[in-house]
């Protein structure tokens, strides 16, 4: 009697348990052959960790952004309390560890699975999230700078300055590089294929410009002018592109209605460049005064010499621009709220993190407006935005634990984007 080898294969890529391969080998006793099962083998590409590394999406850096802006909100809360500062520093520390983990998994993905790099770059969805990496990194720099202002941390300005330049190059690469990929290699056949993620590669320029203006307050006077120039050019570049993308996205909404429910929360993304742009231009106005005030004279004789009145006028201009951007941001925020109420998201996915950073930028803008106008009423508006962000971060964090650690729902979604045939 002849018995053939029987291979039982359980390959359920995307399910919670790792794929296993059970093999049976024949053992002959005289004329009969009995089958004895060997040890179960775990397929290396579908193990718990390997599956998550292979399908680690850059969208995870949006979680770094959410945690980062929540740490800044806690640390700079308009109603200061030492407990809130400690909580902000604790969240910042968690975010640094989380950013390190995400960066490690992101790099390992392309070292262990090189084919994933091209797939990610050419995918019209995943590649957009590359901009989340420099934005998440910028939030870490911001809070580090804030802590250095309140605690004795000598030499921190050097670390912040170096990290800001790294973030600047990453932001430029994200914006210009991904835009090139969008224009040349990625296919969007019609307006219906346009979604708010097109803002993600652009906003890093606005975020990096605000970070530059923020850390410049602790830089030597000789470095402030160059930081102002680079930061303002990035702000202008990012803000102009963001407004252009808004026009395109508005056309999509007029002609093709709202987004599918699965990504309806991403309609909050246009709020980001408006809130961050307002925050950034206010900081740039403050930096302008620091740079040019020492050169102010009663009589204008050159580009570097300005009158005291012109220095003060910059504050009014930047406040007007900031109010304009906040007004547009409130429009998008209200629109996104109505969209979400009429088309609720079906379940957790990475687009939920869009409810954190964009609203957080509005909170930071209101924080700074309160300081400029010295109006205590603005404190309550900023505090309200801040509390909403903190609540959303908690919800998203719990969802990430459930759907990425306990289950692997979000990794299956990423797999279906870049490796649907597997």
From TrEMBL:
Query: InterPro entries of this UniProt entry?
Result: SLAC1/Mae1/Ssu1/TehA, Sulfite_efflux_TDT, Voltage-dep_anion_channel_sf
| Pfam families, per the entry | SLAC1 (PF03595)
**Segments passing through the bilayer:** 59-77, 89-108, 128-147, 162-185, 197-216, 228-250, 262-284, 313-339, 351-369, 381-401
Compartments, as annotated in UniProt = Cell membrane
GO CC terms for this protein?
A: plasma membrane
Superkingdom, natural source: Eukaryota
Q: What is its main location?
A: membrane
The annotated topology with respect to the bilayer is: Multi-pass membrane protein
Keyword annotations of the record: Cell membrane, Membrane, Transmembrane, Transmembrane helix, Transport
Q: Name one GO molecular function term.
A: sulfite transmembrane transporter activity
Q: Which family does it belong to?
A: Belongs to the tellurite-resistance/dicarboxylate transporter (TDT) family.
Q: What is this protein called?
A: Sulfite efflux pump SSU1
Q: Which source organism does the UniProt entry give?
A: Magnusiomyces paraingens
């Amino acid at each position: 009697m002849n018995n053939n080898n029987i291979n039982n294969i359980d390959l359920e890529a995307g399910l919670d348990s790792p794929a296993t391969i059970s093999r049976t080998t024949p053992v002959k006793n005289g004329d009969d052959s009995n089958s004895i099962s060997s040890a179960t083998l775990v397929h290396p590409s579908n193990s718990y960790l390997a599956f998550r590394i292979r399908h680690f999406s850059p969208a995870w850096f949006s979680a770094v952004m959410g945690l980062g802006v929540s740490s800044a909100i806690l640390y700079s809360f308009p109603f200061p309390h030492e407990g809130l500062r400690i909580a902000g520093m604790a969240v910042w520390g968690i975010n640094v560890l989380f950013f390190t983990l995400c960066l490690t998994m992101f790099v390992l993905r392309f070292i262990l699975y090189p084919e994933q790099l091209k797939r990610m770059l050419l995918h019209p969805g995943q590649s957009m999230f590359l901009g989340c990496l420099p934005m998440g990194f910028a939030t870490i720099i911001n809070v580090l700078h804030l802590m250095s202002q309140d605690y004795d941390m000598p030499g921190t300005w050097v670390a912040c300055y170096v990290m800001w330049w790294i973030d600047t190059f990453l932001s430029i690469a994200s914006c210009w590089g991904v835009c090139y990929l969008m224009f040349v290699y990625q296919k969007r056949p019609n307006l219906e294929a346009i979604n708010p993620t097109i803002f993600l590669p652009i906003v890093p320029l606005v975020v990096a410009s605000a970070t530059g203006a923020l850390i410049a307050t602790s830089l030597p006077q000789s470095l402030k002018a160059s930081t102002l120039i680079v930061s303002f050019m990035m702000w202008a570049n990012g803000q102009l592109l963001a407004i252009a993308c808004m026009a395109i996205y508005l056309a999509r909404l007029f002609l093709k209605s709202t987004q599918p429910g699965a990504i309806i929360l991403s309609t909050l993304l246009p709020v980001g460049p408006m809130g961050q742009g307002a925050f950034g231009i206010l900081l740039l106005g403050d930096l302008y005064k620091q740079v040019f005030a020492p050169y102010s004279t009663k009589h204008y004789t050159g580009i570097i010499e300005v009158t005291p009145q012109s220095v003060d006028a910059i504050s009014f201009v930047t406040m007007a621009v900031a109010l304009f951007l906040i007004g547009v941001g409130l429009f998008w925020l209200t629109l996104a709220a109505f969209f979400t109420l009429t088309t609720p998201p079906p379940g957790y996915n990475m687009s939920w993190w869009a409810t954190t950073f964009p609203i957080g930028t509005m909170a930071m803008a209101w924080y700074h407006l309160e300081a400029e106008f010295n109006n205590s009423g603005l404190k309550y508006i900023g505090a309200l935005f801040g509390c909403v962000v903190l609540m959303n971060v908690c919800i998203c964090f719990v969802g990430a634990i459930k759907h990425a650690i306990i289950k692997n729902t979000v990794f299956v979604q990423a797999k279906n984007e870049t490796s649907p045939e597997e």
